Structures are given as structure tokens and as C-alpha cells.
Amino acid sequence: MVTKTTEHQSSSPAGDYLLEVFEARKTFPGVVALDNVQLKVKPGTVHALMGENGAGKSTLMKIIAGVYIPDQGEVRLRGKPLTLHGPLDALEAGIAMIHQELNLMPFMTIAENIWIRREPLNAFGFVDHSRMNQMTEALFERLGIEMDPEQEVRHLTVSGRQMIEIAKAVSYESDVLIMDEPTSSLADREVEHLFKIISDLRSQGKGIIYITHKMDEVFEIADDISVFRDGQFVHAAPASELSSDKIIQLMVGREVTQMFPKEEVPIGDVVLSVKDLALDGVFENVSFHLRAGEILGIAGLVGSGRTNVAETLFGITPATGGSIAIDGQKTVISSPHQAMLRGLALLTEDRKETGLFLGLSVIENMEMAVLRDGYTKGPFVEQGRLDHECDGMREMMRVKTPSLDERISNLSGGNQQKVLIGRWLMTNPRILILDEPTRGIDVGAKAEIHKMISKFAAQGMAVIMISSELPEVLGMSDRIMVMHEGRVTGVLDRSEANQVNIMSLASSQVAPPVAEH
User: Fold this and answer.
1) How many Cα atoms occupy the beta-carbon half-sphere of 190 within 13 Å?
2) 144-to-192, 266, 485 alpha-carbon distances in Å
3) Sequence-distant contacts of 512-516: CB under 8 A, at least 24 apart
4) Which bin fits 307, alpha (ψ -120 to 50), beta or left (φ > 0)?
5) Helix (H) or strand (E) holding 170
6) How confident is the model over 234-285, as pLDDT tens digits?
7) What's the predicted TM-score (pTM) here?
8) 232, 235, 375, 482: most buried, per Cβ within 10 A?
9) Within this chain, do residues 262 and 308 fall inside the same structural domain, yes or no?
10) The domain spanning residue 320 has which CATH number?
11) Rounded to the nearest 5°, which phi and psi values hold at 28?
């Protein structure tokens, strides 16, 4: 637990604020992203910014970080008006931001990524790589990070890249540090490590703006909380004066009464059987079955092999051992196209990296998986019929967008995720694999997606759901398969599963006999 400061925004005179935003407004075509919002952050505190996707949190942070120029409003740093023409202006003023979308250069080293545009030079004006690596080692020693500065970023895990983004932001020695969903890809141990870094920064008088959808983090780390809804400022108060229920009510404008709307539905015949599935050097001896109407949760710590199993089932990385059977018939899946022909669909873990085409429209993203099959006549696409189907899917998934032609990068994270789920539903899958289906989206959108997953199962679809959030796995699954370091350590019925025994299996070194039911 991090020790927090005792002074709070509600009792501080105006001169005590490190950063202030007044009447900020920002519009995009067809969207009012921010409407006269405010924010006040004190030095030596963590200020949590809460709100659903689309509430305007990230837009406001990008204004403070110089990425966007507001249509109106004022930003003050240490009481003085601040005019920013770009991110470099913000960095020079003492404001750094860790973006939700990782912005590292994959074919450059860790050190090169951290010190880009600030590289130390030798007497001849060339980059001094030796000195740069030493600077990185000193930074890592200070932050307690154990990585090789000369390793290329492309070889790092998502969580490793996130820690590099954090280290890069800290390296600027900024007075204001903005963290946008910094723990979305981190394991519990790494989150604890990050919170220690935050505690150290707080003790140095830094002001930290912290955006997260994880309510437990808010009450562990935050001194003050501001809530936004639909691009407007709603409420600000010390964390000690708010509860999770109150925050959710402020965020969504209503009470979210059923976060995990799991329905009891008839469980049908076995659709998918996996026996001793293996991928050399990654996982081995993975066996389970999946029935129609069933939601099989897969839990495990980072590095357990959960995502690798999903990718192997879908043919992204074909298995090197074991067997897969669909409806009792053994099959070989060596490509995603083969998987789709056999009725499988995969929502990938990272929607930005492996799901979305950010430069394309909503409809172009939604139709991507079916253009080749079912909507062509000769060499031509039946665009009218396809448009009609996509519009129907938009309505069913309740995607909030000005139009199907809107660029998908302008949608909130929750709506982007709904588009991706809609993409795969258009393939009419019998087996739906969802890898982190609610990562980085707000509580309202989470509840909607959970309801949709239950509906899919009720319609007879077989669902595999991978999640790092134990309440989600426990709340939505009929059975839970737990993995540790590439091995299945247990399969639990819904009635016998709890956080304690899941975490025990997730950290186990020895796989006990798996109980199939």
C-alpha cells in the first residue's frame, strides 16, 4: 500500500495548485470531445481522472501534453498561463505523458527509444552509444528496472514496453506526469513496482494525473479524484470522500447494478476438443474441451501462455504437437483462414496493434473479415448488401459513432472494441475466442460487453474468454482453466472457483491432474 498525502484539493488555496485547466473545449468533426471542463492538480499528489471511454479524459490530457490545441480555455502551470504548440513545448515546460497507445520504435534499442532526440554526442557530433547506455542503466537502477539497454524493443513483451514508456516519461524529470492507463498491460507484481515509482515521484513534489478504469487502483494510489461524463466535468473531491459505487454513478449517470450478467443457459455437446496441444518452447500438454453454450474462462499470470494457446487455436502460430477436434473430427489449423472456415473467430489481446486499422473507417474495419467470403459477386463486392449488414451490426452492438464512415481512431476504446466483436460476429462463428475483451474500457462499456457475451452463449455459441481480471473470469465463466508457465494447472467449475484457488493454481510450479466435467 502506498502512503498518500493528507492535504486535499478541497482545502487548498488557489496558489497551491501546480496545474490548472479552465473552461477547456475541444471539438472534432461531429463530436464535442470536451465542453468547458476544469482540472486542478496539487504538487506532491496523485489526481485520478475517472470517466467512461469517450468522456474526454484522454482528450484533455493531450491538450495538457501539447498534442491537441484547445478551441478555447486556458492551461496554467504554477499559476502562469501556458501556451503549447506541440508536445515538445509541453516537455520543455515540465509536462510528460505516458500514452495509452505505446509509441516506441520496435527496431531501435531500449536506450535509443528512451533518449530519442536527446542522445548524448561525442566530440565528433555522433551519438555516444556507450554514454547513452550508461545513462539508461542509471535510470533503471533508480527505478528498479532490470533490462538490457541494448535490447531491441521488438523483442519485449507488451508489459516490458509499458515499463519502458514509464521510464522514458520519468527521464524527462517533469513536474507534471500524465499516466493514461499505465497498468493495462502489467501483471500484479509490475503494478506494485509502478506504484512504488509513483510514491517516490510524489515525495519529490511531482503532480501525477492518473487515468485508469481499475477502481481498486484508484483507492490505493489517488489523493484526489475528478469525474468526467460525455465531455463534461462532473465532480471533484478527495478520494477519501468517495466510494466506488458513487464514482460509477457519477461516471455513467446511473447505477450499474449488474456488472457480470451471467445467464444460466443449456450446455450442449462438445464442439471443440484439444488434446496435448503444444507449441515448442511456449506451452505443452494443453488439454480441454468446450461445449456449445459454455463460457470457458482462461486465467493465468503474464507469461502463462494464455494468449499463445488462443493464437495457436486460430492458426496464427500453428501447433507443433497435440491435436484439435471440432465436432469430434480431428482437424489441422495452420492459418487464420482455415480457422475461420471451421467456425472459429479470435478477438486479439491488443486492439491497437493486432485488431484495428486505425487509418480506416468504422465500416472498413467491420467488414474486413467477410470481404472475401459471402459478399462478392464475381470480382465485385456487393457493397450495398454489405453496408446494410454492417449497419445492422452497428445497431446490435450499440456502437456510438456519427456514421459508419467515421474514422475508427475517433471512437472511444469501448466502441472500437464493439466494432471488432461485430467484425467477428459477421463471420457467423460457432467458437468465439475473446482475449482480454474489456481491457482498457470503462465500466459501462464492460457491462454491455459482458451482457453480449452471455447473449452469445445463450444462442449456442461456444466461448473462450481470456482475462487478467479475476472478477471478470469468476463472474462470466462456467468453467475456468488456469495456466502457469505454459502448462494447465487446473480446471475449476464455477461453483468451486474463487480468487484464492485461481491465484494458487496460477502461481503453481506443478500441474495437478486436470478435472474435466
Assistant:
1) 21
2) 12, 51, 24
3) 514/287, 514/288, 514/488, 514/490, 515/490, 515/491, 516/287, 516/288, 516/289, 516/491
4) alpha
5) helix 158-171
6) 999 999 999 888 887 888 775 555 567 777 888 999 999 999 999 999 999 9
7) 0.61
8) 482
9) yes
10) 3.40.50.300
11) -125, 165
